[in-house]
Specification:
By secondary structure, this protein is of the alpha/beta class. It contains twelve helices and 17 strands.
Length: 402
């Protein structure tokens, strides 16, 4: 492990957080963006704006009626430190690429939330020294983009670190206090009984700090799930956990509960079809749940050439579908009616030439390119004998068909 650079002191962080709040209010007063209803932020699907072949958000809005996007993920710098970056590599402070996408979305009447954390990478709660400095780092993101919503995606490996979770929950509470009206969701792993031990510890940490977000959402996939029935069962069990942890009645617990699914083939080979999403959507609306989202819009299209069962991809769903089928369930949850016409499919691009074939015995370093399963792949870091495409979170980035 590389040592992490020291973060701001608590006093300096609180000062920065307060200054960030002032800047945020000023930004809103200038008409930088108008907030949507909370229902839209609750329905915003995840979108990686810089990786995994991001779709054009404007075209997606036109095709589906979607208005809100959950941009992912803000992390600590890969080289260490307590400042926000996109994916650990692109500093928020100097960003123009994500800002351009946000401007496109807002120009069409939409808005974004930003998700911090996610699976893998170093989180700011791990890198920063305390809750105040963690909040100050996140306040930079809120101020930079004039955000009305933020999502704390607390999962492996961070949620196994009690000190990091204390920082994240404390930061979420500070941001909630310093940014009146900020929509805050907390997303964590799902299990058949609702959430696992670490998820329950996170809820207890929130209780101990007196922090209540708009919702606590679970991700019922990658844990032995099999279709919608197993997911709604987990949501029912999670509701009981929320009741027992916070002393809420059933209706109050559902009003603070959310669902975050994975469209198509999951990392562990589970399958969730449009019919599964419809069933969970009906469950969520009939129980007046607060949130319905999914990972991800980058995957909300059929693989090309069609590969409906062979692998999990970050850029397609691996199930038969029309473009943006799954996004339309988010539109329904928000209370809007998606277009009834089927959008014209995007022409399939001409495949590029294939790179040298991947070898299980070769050593690859960051930037090396290979071909496997009729796709080109680029190494994210040092790797050997790890099959390209075996996991969305593995060392290989899919560069498309070849």
């Amino acid at each position: 492990m590389r040592p992490l650079r020291a973060c701001l002191s608590a006093a300096a962080a609180v000062t920065l957080a307060a200054a960030g709040t002032t800047a945020l209010v000023a930004g809103h007063a200038s008409g930088a963006t108008t907030a949507l209803s909370n229902r839209w932020y609750a329905a915003a699907p995840y979108l990686m704006p810089l990786d995994n072949d991001p779709p054009d958000p404007g075209a997606l809005m036109d095709a589906t009626g979607l208005k809100a996007f959950q941009l992912a993920f803000v992390l600590a710098p890969d080289g260490g430190g307590c400042s926000p970056t996109w994916g650990g590599t692109a500093p928020v402070s100097s960003d123009t690429a994500v800002q351009s996408k946000i401007s496109t979305i807002r120009a069409k009447g939409g808005d974004v939330s930003v998700s911090v954390g996610g699976y893998g990478g170093t989180k700011l709660g791990q890198a920063c020294s305390d809750a105040a400095s963690t909040a100050a780092a996140y306040q930079q993101v809120i101020t930079k983009y004039g955000l009305h919503a933020v999502d704390f995606d607390l999962e492996e490996p961070e949620y196994e670190n009690s000190a990091a979770i204390k920082n994240e929950i404390g930061a979420a509470k500070i941001l909630q206090q310093n940014n009146p009206g900020l929509y805050v969701s907390v997303t964590t792993a799902g299990t058949a009984d609702g959430t696992g031990w670490f998820g329950k510890q996170m809820l207890l940490e929130a209780k101990s700090q007196g922090f209540t977000p708009n919702n606590f959402s679970i991700m019922p996939f990658d844990g032995g799930f099999n279709g919608a029935a197993s997911q709604t069962g987990a949501l029912t069990n999670f509701n009981s956990i929320l009741q027992s942890t916070f002393g809420w009645d059933q209706a109050t617990a559902y009003a603070h509960e959310g669902f975050s699914g994975m469209n198509g083939r999951s990392d562990t080979g589970e399958y969730f079809t449009q019919a599964d999403f419809q069933t969970v959507l009906q469950y969520a609306t009939s129980h007046a749940m607060d949130r319905f989202t999914f990972w991800s819009l980058n995957r909300d299209r059929q693989c090309s050439p069609p590969d409906n069962g062979g692998r999990t991809s970050g850029t397609c769903s691996s199930v038969p579908q029309n473009p943006w089928d799954f996004a339309k369930y988010s539109v329904q949850f928000a209370g809007a009616t998606p277009p009834t016409t089927t959008p014209t499919p995007t022409p399939t691009p001409t495949p590029t030439s294939c790179k040298p074939a991947w070898s299980s015995s070769a050593v690859y370093t960051q930037g090396d390119e290979v071909s496997y399963d009729k796709h080109n792949w680029k190494a994210k870091w040092w790797t050997r004998n790890e099959v390209p495409g075996a996991s969305e979170w593995g060392p290989w980035q899919d560069e498309g068909a070849c």
